[in-house]
Amino acid sequence: MVVMGLAAFSPRKFRRRVFGQLWMLALQFMLGMILNLLGNNRGGAEHAVYNTVLIAHIVNAIGLLEGSIYIALKEQNKWAWWSVVAISVTFSAGVLTILTNQGTWSFVMAVGFLTSAWLYIVLYVGADRRIR
């Protein structure tokens, strides 16, 4: 199916794109854990490191959101669209965590991350089966 002039990925390219999203999710997890370890109540160089890691975390999140939308538009797959929903909810929860500093949004972000990872694993396995 072609949407807005976008042809579907070849099976190998689709698997590679999904694999890239999984790697970005792994990076997002590591950056989030570094932020949790550092905390934002530090001064001096530690505060600069915290801000740098936070910016990398945000940029990676934007990349995950963009990648999920691109994959869903090209593939028109229900799992791909659910991954857009999961990434969007996770992204929104991350923004709300920063703005409100409430643990509830951090929990929603963690659940969204796990859901997103699961959905991309489902997509990867499906893509791998299409190749074989």
Structural class: mainly alpha
Q: Any idea what the shape is?
A: elongated
Tell me the β content. under 5%
* Radius of gyration from CA coordinates: 16 Å
Number of strands: 0
The major pleated sheet works out as: none
Helix content: over 70%
The ordered string of helix (H) and strand (E) elements is HHHH
Low-confidence spans? none
In total, the number of domains comes to 1
Number of helices: 4
Overall pLDDT score: 90
Distance between the termini: 22 Å
What does this structure look like?
The protein has 4 helices and no strands. The protein is an all-alpha fold and 132 residues long. Helix 1 packs antiparallel against helix 2 (45-75) and helix 2 packs antiparallel against helix 3 (78-100). The radius of gyration is 16 Å and the shape is elongated.
Set down the secondary structure blueprint:
Blueprint: H1 11-38, H2 45-75, H3 78-100, H4 103-131
